[in-house]
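hey m, so remember when u said the tokens were messed up on ur end? i reran from scratch. heres the input so u can diff it against urs
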Amino acid sequence: MFIDYARIKVVAGSGGNGCVSFRREKFVPKGGPDGGNGGRGGDIIAVGSANVNTLLEYRYLKLFRAERGSHGSGKNQAGKSGVDRELLFPLGTIFFDITDGGKEFIGELENEGDQIILAKGGKGGRGNATYVSSTNQAPRTAEDGGEGEERDIELELKLIADVGLVGFPNAGKSTLLSHVSAARPKIADYPFTTLEPSLGVVQFAEFTTFVMADIPGLIEGAHTGKGLGLQFLRHIERTKTLLYLIDINSEDPVNDYAVLKNELQQYDIYLEKKRHLIGLNKIDTVSEDDRDERIAQLVKDFKDKVDKDIIVISAVSGENIEQLKRDLFKMIQEADQAEE
């Protein structure tokens, strides 16, 4: 099950108390103070892991605590620090603090091993040995350990992929992903077959691959929450490039493209500016007698109305799929160079 949203509570460990103690040895009736400091509390630390791909664990387990620090003791023995608690999250996880009713960005995990401290452990209290001064040689004061941070955290996962597949339900996105990669998303001849995003690794050349994400189908009004819109539009943000996949049998493919592009722009104005390719799918369903004329008309329509080139493909028969992969890889390289 793919889970891309959750809320959890994290409680860092409290610091140990400082100790009030005096040196007690034979023939030393008035030994000085020797109370040790308390240990610090453990932190709650988020760690990015490529081996985790969902927030499922955090949907059902809500509370995470770190170990508290041990109290200080006599003979200037400091308390043991609490053990930090590390929580593994998928790459692309974003964290928000919602403790005070607002929503404050904490950070995001982009790379393997990235770390974010979600809650900091309390400071250990000072023992009475640290209070010795020229005017107070026998202090009977020690400090309590500090409380560990306690926070309510909102988790949001955005898939990281090179190419995001965008299209209306039943445009053939899942079929395409299964054709070009080893991913096996659910495929059927009815809308909203895909209810969760799928990732596939596309082999382009002998030692060259890129990652493609099949985003569940959008509908007009998706940016307002219709259909599966808001639930999955966030995943498109993290892709480098987009492939608009449109059914060649649509009554108005140019309008389909315009509607899809508008939905992305309404959700996030920067999505409209992403590098993208327009693929017209299911050419295998057009009769050979009408095929050339149909393609020529669509090429003209897209050029005249939106000044865009298109590529006509079949995710079922594999027609023009190799050319599609070449075009997508070129766009990915351009996106990487622009980022650098």
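this time it looks ok to me. The chain has a mean pLDDT of 85. if urs says something different then somethings off w ur setup not the seq
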